[in-house]
Amino acid sequence: MKSCLQDAYLDIETTGLSWLDAEITVIGVYLVNGNDSRLVQLVGKEVTVDNLLKTINGVSTIYTYNGSRFDLPFIHGSLGIDLETIADHHDLMYDCWRCNLFGGYKAVEQQLGISRRLQGITGLDAVLLWQRYREYNDRKALNLLLEYNKEDVINLKVLNERLEGKTVLKFES
User: Fold this and answer.
1) Strand order through the sheet with 61-64
2) For residue 107, what are the domain limits?
3) What phi and psi values does residue 28 have, to the nearest 5 degrees?
4) pTM to 2 decimals?
C-alpha cells in the first residue's frame, strides 16, 4: 500500500497583493511524509485548480507563514479553491507570535538562525523576476524566482521544527 504525503508546506508568488488585480505566478508545495519529501512548483499556466488538487491529494495538514491572510485567500479568490475545506491549515506566523517572534517571514528566520542561500531577495523582487521572465523570456530570472520559492517552502518545514516544543518567551520587566 502506497503511503500518502501527510504534510504540505505551501507558499505562493504573485504579481501583486490582491487577487482582484494580480495573478499567482508560482505555487510552491513541499510535500513531506516522514523521511520522504518532494517539491512541486506550479508555474504560470500550470497554476490550475486540477494541478493544485493533484498536488495536495492525500495531504492532511498545510503549513504556511501568513497563509491565513495572504496565500489561502489569494488561492481561493484566484482559483476558487478553499484549501481549508480540503486539509487542516496551520499558519506558523501565529506560533511565532506566541513565542514573541515578530516580523515578516525572513525576519523570523533570522531571529531563529535559519539560513538562506539567497540573501536579500524580497517579495517585490519575486514580482520583478517574474516580469523579466515574462517580458524577456529571461530563464535566469525564472530560475532565481523558483529557487527563492523553494527556499521559502523548505524553510517553512525548518521553522515548524524549530517551533515544535518551543515555549513562549517571557520578557523580563
Assistant:
1) 36-43, 24-33, 7-14, 61-64, 88-91
2) 7-161
3) -100, 130
4) 0.92
